[in-house]
């Protein structure tokens, strides 16, 4: 089996080639993807890098958030899992994996485009984990539209609420409670610098996330709180089959990267772990690109 530790050629380390056309309503489910993504379920090995940490992960049910949540738990963190109610089945699988790692999993379904729900996640973490020192904002909304004329105000609003406002609400609510040593990790995208013509609203939010993070990182550094960003390239997740890409683009998905294939969520979890752990103590305001080699500024 492919893992993250064996010396190997990254070009064919995971699924090569494109993907069959497939479509899911709503946010989609990891369990319905064909082929099944690899979130590190069978492979991620922890080494106590986050022992005793208390984490909140949004979008934790599937994709990149699931991979981060599994890795955080195997590194020794308790985790609050945020996701949409429609994703309960995926989230319960992740909770099982967190508990198998001997850590606490707290299920926190809800729509983070709603201010009270987003802010409430912080209270859930404080009450259920007895504190909070690690936030991975991974949730995101991406809906492709051929023309600007097709982007409704409702879509524009939902994309900004989910990707930018929720991040602001969660971080603002959490900051008074975060001890020195805490880490905030936000999730941008290659779209921040290389926007697709059909992702105008989404790409704009991803640039906002980078800028938000770089400004805030300077503000809170003296308190010993670090703010960093992970910027994925094309990863095989439900987002891409639930309207994030035109369905007919899936056979080509990921092929344009220098590595020549899409990434699997297991391949990006170590970036979150690095930015979460004290190993990266001198790193803040940074964006770590994990994108198969596409050039970034
Ligand atoms: P994903 O569908 O597995 O995860 C996105 C998650 O966002 C969903 O599982 C859902 O729980 C959450 N979410 C969306 N709207 C929400 C809402 N209103 N309330 C609560 N939760 C909500 O897909 P993914 O690709 O793992 O996405 C994770 C992050 O990675 C996103 O921020 C996305 O923009 C970013 N990203 C993904 C790719 C990629 O190719 N997959 C590329 C660049 C950036
Ligand atoms: Mg999901």
Automatic annotation (TrEMBL):
Domain Ketoreductase, first and last residues per copy: 53-239
Top-level taxon: Bacteria
SMART domains registered for this protein in UniProt: PKS_KR (SM00822)
UniProt GO molecular function: oxidoreductase activity, acting on CH-OH group of donors
InterPro entries (alphabetical): KR_dom, NAD(P)-bd_dom_sf, Sc_DH/Rdtase_CS, SDR_fam
Pfam families: adh_short_C2
Keywords carried by this UniProt record: Oxidoreductase
Family to which this protein belongs: Belongs to the short-chain dehydrogenases/reductases (SDR) family.
Name of the protein described by the UniProt record: Ketoreductase domain-containing protein
Lineage: Bacteria, Bacillati, Actinomycetota, Actinomycetes, Propionibacteriales
């Amino acid at each position: 089996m492919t893992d993250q530790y064996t010396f190997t050629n990254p070009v064919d380390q995971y699924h090569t080639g494109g993907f069959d056309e497939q479509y899911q309503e709503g946010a989609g489910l990891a369990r319905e993807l064909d082929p099944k993504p690899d979130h590190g379920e069978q492979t991620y090995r922890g080494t106590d890098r986050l022992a005793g940490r208390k984490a909140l992960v949004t979008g934790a049910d599937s994709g990149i958030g699931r991979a981060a949540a599994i890795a955080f738990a195997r590194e020794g963190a308790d985790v609050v899992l945020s996701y949409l109610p429609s994703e309960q089945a995926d989230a319960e699988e992740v909770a099982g994996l967190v508990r198998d790692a001997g850590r606490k999993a707290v299920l926190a379904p809800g729509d983070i485009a709603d201010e009270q729900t987003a802010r409430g996640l912080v209270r859930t973490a404080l009450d259920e984990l007895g504190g909070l020192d690690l936030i991975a904002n991974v949730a995101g909304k991406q809906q492709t539209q051929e023309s600007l004329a097709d982007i409704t105000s409702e879509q524009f609003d939902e994309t900004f609420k989910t990707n930018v406002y929720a991040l602001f609400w969660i971080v603002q609510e959490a900051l008074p409670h975060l001890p020195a040593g805490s880490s905030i990790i936000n999730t941008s995208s290659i779209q921040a610098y290389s926007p697709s013509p059909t992702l105008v609203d989404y790409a704009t939010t991803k640039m906002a996330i980078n800028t938000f993070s770089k400004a805030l990182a300077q503000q809170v550094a003296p308190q010993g709180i670090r703010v960093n960003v992970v910027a994925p390239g094309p990863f095989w997740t439900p987002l891409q089959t639930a309207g994030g890409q035109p369905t007919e683009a899936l056979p080509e998905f990921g092929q344009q990267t220098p590595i020549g294939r899409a990434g699997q969520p297991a391949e990006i979890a170590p970036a979150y772990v690095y930015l979460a752990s004290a190993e990266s103590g001198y790193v803040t305001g940074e964006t770590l690109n994990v994108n198969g080699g596409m050039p970034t500024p």
